[in-house]
C-alpha cells in the first residue's frame, strides 16, 4: 500500500515537471 502512494506521488511530480517544461518551451519560442 505504501509503495502505491509513492508511485502516485512520483506520477504527480513527473506530470507537473512535464507541464512546466512544456510551458517554458512555449514561452521561449514565442
Give the ordered list of helices and strands.
Answer: H
Question: What do the pLDDT scores average to?
Answer: 93
Low-confidence stretches: none
- The number of E-state strands comes to 0
Percent in helix: over 70%
The multimeric state of the shown protein is single chain
Query: Ends: how far apart?
Result: 44 Å
Instruction: Count every helix, treating DSSP H or I runs of 4 or more residues as helices.
Output: 1
Percent of sequence in beta strands: under 5%
Determine Rg (CA atoms, Å).
Answer: 13 Å
Largest sheet descriptor? none
The helix/strand class is mainly alpha
Q: How would the global form be characterised?
A: rod-shaped
Task: Describe this protein with a few key phrases.
mainly alpha; 1 helix; 30 residues
Explain how this protein is built.
This protein is 93% helix and 0% strand. It is mainly α. The model has no long low-confidence stretch (mean pLDDT 93). The chain is rod-shaped, with a radius of gyration of 13 Å.
Write the layout of secondary structure elements.
Blueprint: H1 2-29
Transmembrane segments: 6-25
Keywords: Membrane, Transmembrane, Transmembrane helix
Could you provide a short overview of the structure?
The chain is built from one helix and no strands. The protein is an all-alpha fold.
Amino acid at each position: 500500500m505504501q509503495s502505491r502512494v509513492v508511485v502516485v506521488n512520483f506520477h504527480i511530480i513527473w506530470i507537473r515537471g512535464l507541464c512546466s517544461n512544456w510551458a517554458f518551451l512555449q514561452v521561449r519560442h514565442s
